[in-house]
Amino acid sequence: MEMRADFMSSYQHILGVFSPHLSSQYALMKALFLADKSKSKLTLIQLATPRFDFMKSTNKSTDMMPLAENDDLILQYQNLGLEIEIKEVKSNSVSTEVLSEIEQDQYDLVIVNYKHHHPVFHEFFFAEEWSLLRQKQISVMLVGEKQWQHEGNILTAIETDDTSEQHLNFNKKLLDDSEEIASLLDNNIHLINCFHNNDLSMEVTISNSTDGHQDVKAQHWLDLIDSAQNYHLEDSQLHLVEGLPDHIIPTIADQYHANMVIVGASEHQGWLSQFKGHTSEQIIDQLHCDILAIKPSL
């Protein structure tokens, strides 16, 4: 997908976080790739946990190959002209270091590794990465092992019930950022809008109920088309589904083998506001791809 000629990059400074001794460096590789494609500055937090340092000091046979491979990968991108700053930190908390860093400098995107959790996890524990979705007005990309496929798909979830100027502007930001990510990955955009039939009256006839349902669906479809009109999307790339987003979004993402799901977060109204709480965490762990949570502009 090609960006419009007047399109301005949203990403001038990206923050990536990686643990140097892990064998799988998804956040590092994807942060380097996106920063190179977008020509942005990249700051990397190299997070070494005190526990690992203790194990290393007591076990001289610790495998140091991942560390050397990380250095080689970073050097390759530096040789291509990518501006990279590395900050070494000893900490057990990704979120604490990210929140501290974004207080010190201006960033447009944070990229961190995310490990999926068993559903039982949600009943007893809290993944610290979730706090990044809730607390700060900065876009967060949670990435895993799924490789970004060339000429693949990105699924962007928008909500059309709210017609306020503030929300319409936020939908535009979602679509602009989706357009840029799709261009950087050479992917296609698919839009998903979930809707509810809110007429719960017990007095309506079956005929009136059916007509009302069709009217609601038709209006949502028109709103979806209107939202997408400046982004050159075909009808086959627009998806209107009745139901709850925590059920629908993972299903559609799997159906189109999405490289990434893009959602809005930290709004106060609309079904996407659920991404601030427990529902969002359930959706994240149902996805088999990366997720980009975009925050409203301050």
Automatic annotation (TrEMBL):
Keyword check for Cytoplasm: yes
PANTHER family xref list: UNIVERSAL STRESS PROTEIN E
SUPFAM superfamilies documented for this protein: Adenine nucleotide alpha hydrolases-like (SSF52402)
InterPro entries, sorted: UspA
Name recorded for this polypeptide: Universal stress protein
Residue ranges of domain UspA in the record: 11-142, 181-295
Family: Belongs to the universal stress protein A family.
Source domain of life: Bacteria
Species of origin: Shewanella nanhaiensis
Compartment(s): Cytoplasm
Keywords per UniProt: Cytoplasm
Gene3D superfamilies for this protein: 3.40.50.12370
Role of this protein: Required for resistance to DNA-damaging agents.
Pfam families listed in its UniProt record: Usp
TM regions (residue ranges): none
Major localisation: cytoplasm
